[in-house]
Amino acid sequence: MINLQKGQKIDLTKSNPGLNNIMVGLGWDPVVNPSKGGGLLGGLFGGGKKQADIDCDASVYMLNANGKLADMKNLVYFGNLTSPCGSIRHTGDNLTGDGDGDDEQIIVNLSRVPADVHRLVFVVNIYQCEQRKQHFGMIRNAFIRIVNDKGQELCRYNLSDGYEGKTSLITGEVYRHNGEWKFAALGEATTDPGLKSLTRRFL
């Protein structure tokens, strides 16, 4: 397994002949802040105001050679769990980020990705971030990882930058290069308040 730094790239299929199916796992943990809700005792015994769960949503854009989203159906997210071609499947929404391991998973069959799709860009945004006054400075241990169909982790990118005030993350991309598939660790943060705003970057 390879730990990547921001901006690094890795071969997927060239280094793993016969690799067709990958699972892209995205995870994060909410920051525990005892000072919220009336101090430590208040937090333990129900005093004060409970902070709303941070609901991060993972999505993937299927982009053409020009880096554009040619069809809105090529955006796979909690409201559209499977791509029209069937090559990408989102396993569903996690509302809190609690628990170990991946919080959301996206399954990709590389051999079934249409020839006119050149890049799969994986993003995470905070649902209702403006209403809840939440941002990525309030989560920790965010990562994106690639796992093969045998359950072996091929690579992982831990997003360790400070994302104070940022509400969307462009985490990484799986893309075609000379007939092979590669992965790039991006780690770009934006202030887009939701998926609709983020999508405009790819139109």
- Number of helix segments? 3
CATH architecture: Sandwich
Topology pattern, helix = H, strand = E: EEEHEEEEEHEEEEH
Low-confidence stretches: 34-50
CATH topology call: Lipoxygenase-1
In helices, the fraction of residues equals under 10%
What gyration radius follows from the Cα positions, in whole Å?
A: 18 Å
In CATH, the homologous superfamily goes by the name sav2460 like domains
How would the global form be characterised? globular
Overall mean pLDDT: 86
Short description:
By secondary structure, the chain is mostly beta strands.
Give a description of the structure.
With 203 residues, the protein is mainly beta. The protein has a single domain, classed as Lipoxygenase-1. Helices cover 7% and strands 39% of the residues. It has three helices and twelve strands, in the order βββαβββββαββββα. The strands form two sheets. A six-stranded mixed beta sheet has the order 1-10-9-3-7-6, with no helix packed on it. Strands 2-12-11-8-4-5 form a six-stranded antiparallel beta sheet. β11 and β12 form a beta hairpin. The radius of gyration is 18 Å and the shape is globular.
